[in-house]
Every structure is written in structure tokens, then in C-alpha cells.
Amino acid sequence: MEIQAFAKLNLTLDVLGKRPDGYHDLRMVMQSITLCDTLTLTPNQGQGLRVSTDLHFLPTGEKNLAAIAARRFWEALGCPAEDLDICIRKRIPVCAGMAGGSTDAAAVLRALNQRAGSPLTPAELARVGEQVGSDVPYCVLGGTALAEGRGERLTPLPALPRCWVVVCKPEFAISTPELFARIDSVRLRCRPDTDGLLSALEEGDLGGAARRMYNVFEDVLPPRQRDRVGELKNALIQAGALGANMSGTGPTAFGLFDCPEAAEEARAVLAENCRDIFLCQTV
Ligand code: ATP
User: Fold this and answer.
1) What one-character-per-residue DSSP string does 232-262 give?
2) Can you give 100-159 as a three-state secondary structure string?
3) Other CB atoms within 10 A of residue 61 CB
């Protein structure tokens, strides 16, 4: 089986507080995009579960999130593990705030469930995904959705109106635990208007949704990284984006465009000073 695992973007990301169990309560509007990894699942002859990728620094075998997802799926069904090779062609940048590992895990869950004749409903499959990672339930369902709690409480939303998305991943990586620690130690000056964005989606108002995008983590980035993300967002707006935002805990920035020509032009301009740049559509 060959399957696609779509990247996600955060149209909004808000942190409501820290819980007694150490996790944070989040409220975020998520969107899947056509940027994707490709996974190939092939039965093997008695070699067990094996995972390989085309990026040498990613974990292979049992440590890869794709393998963890397969194990959790077989456990949930109470059936023995299969002899299976999972080969991942990565296109989604790693540690970029686009849920690259989580979406690979979700794609494995969907594929194994489909191959078994769909014994689990999408909601049950999302619950299995919760054991693999907080973003996996959303990645199982995909589309436009509100994610709350750790990210596992999902409400499907009206789809973001048709648009083109220019995605820029700056050259540095960001430490997610460090950013969560910083967010606990500051008073947030600015919060996303999540309810306003939900109303814009109800009304099919792309401009209204794009203008309300915001991510609280942008404010707690280290200064040089915040400047770089701000510079990319400004360049996207200058190039005609209806709105621009940072995804997840960064550092990926993206802009929404209502016309493919403007998006292509923006991609070309930003490619001059950003190596990882993609022109996508929403899924
Ligand atoms: P999120 O948006 O969910 O915070 P991210 O995009 O910032 O995630 P990922 O690309 O998912 O980060 O990578 C997070 C970690 O997961 C990396 O340290 C990587 O080694 C590990 N990992 C395990 N399996 C995979 C996989 N299939 N693809 C990418 N990373 C994986």
C-alpha cells in the first residue's frame, strides 16, 4: 500500500494554562495541507516490523512514530503483530511545527485499519492515536478542525475556503520543551481571536480567517529567531498574502493567498532567502 501523510498548519494556537498533570491546555485551529510524506507498506517474510526513512538522522525501527502507531493498532485490536516493512519518503521538514512524525503515525493507523476492513471508527482510531502523540488524533481526521485539551478533543469545522499556501521553514530548529517553559514564565501580551476565526470559517470568509491567524509561541521565541519568523511573515504579506502565521512551536511561517499567481510569485521571491519553501493547497 502506498499512502500520503499530510502536514498540518496552525491557523491559531493559544495556550490556556498549565494543568496539574504537567500538560498544557491548548486551543487551536488546525488545517491540513498538500505537503506530504509518502509511506509504503509491504508485507515481508518473517522479518517482523521494520521502518526505514530517506533521512539518515530519523529513528528507524521501533523508535519511529510509524512503528509505535502500528504496535498500538494491533494491541487495540488484540491481534498479533504483522511482518511488515514501512518505508517513509520524507518531504515534511522535521521539527518544524508541521506534525511530520504525528502525520506518519496517523497514516499508518488509517492504512492498517483500512486493510483490516475498517474495524475501528475514525473516532476510535483517533483514540488509539492519542497513545502515540498529542497531534496524532487530529492527523487521523485531518481537514479543518478545532483541537482542544492536549490536542485530542476535536471538533470538525467548515473547511477553510479554497486558497494557496506558501510555507517557509527557516534554517534553524526550535526546542518545543524550552518554548513551553518560556510560555509558563511570561504573561502573554496577545492572544488569537479564535472565536472570530471560527465565525469567519462559518461565513466562508477567507480574508477574515487569514487576518485572525495568531500563535502565542511567536512572542516567546528567542529574539533572533523571532526576528527571522517576523521577517518571513512580513515578506509573505508584502507579497500579497491575506494573512501570515507561525505553525506549532515553529519555526515554520506560512501565508494564505486567494490567487495562485500571487502565491507562485511569493514563493519565487521568498525562495531567494529561504531554502525550504513550498507552494501547497489545503486538504
Ligand atoms: P509537532 O508539530 O507535532 O510539534 P514537529 O513537526 O515539530 O512536530 P516532527 O517532525 O514530528 O516535529 O519530529 C519530532 C521528533 O520525532 C523528531 O525528534 C524525530 O526524530 C522524531 N520522529 C520519530 N518518527 C518520526 C517520523 N516518522 N518523522 C519525523 N520525525 C519522527
Assistant:
1) HHHHHHHTT-SEEEE-TTSS-EEEEESSHHH
2) HHHHHHHHHHHHHHHHCCCCCCHHHHHHHHHCCCCCHHHHHHCCEEEEEECCCEEEECCC
3) 12
Q: pTM here?
A: 0.96
For β-strands 243-246 and 144-149, DSSP reports them as unpaired
For residue 98, what is its C-alpha cell?
508541521
Residue 279: which region, alpha, beta or left (left: phi > 0; alpha: psi -120 to 50)?
Answer: beta
Pocket test for ligand 1, best of 3, 56, 58, 108 (most atoms within 8 A of CB): 58
Residue-wise pLDDT tens digits, 209-267: 999 999 999 999 999 999 999 999 999 999 999 999 999 998 999 999 999 999 999 99
Of ligand 1's atoms, which has the minimum distance to the CA of residue 248?
2
- Using alpha carbons only, give the angle 104, 99, 190 rounded to the nearest 5 degrees: 165
Q: How far is CA 122 from CA 29, 135, 155, 245, 263, in A?
A: 19, 15, 13, 29, 34
Question: Hey, whose CA ends up nearest to atom 14 of ligand 1?
Answer: 95
**Which residues are part of the catalytic machinery?**
8, 135
Q: What is the pLDDT of residue 24?
A: 93
What would the grid cell of residue 194 be? 479564535
CB neighbour class for 196 (10 Å; exposed up to 12, middle 13-18, buried from 19): middle
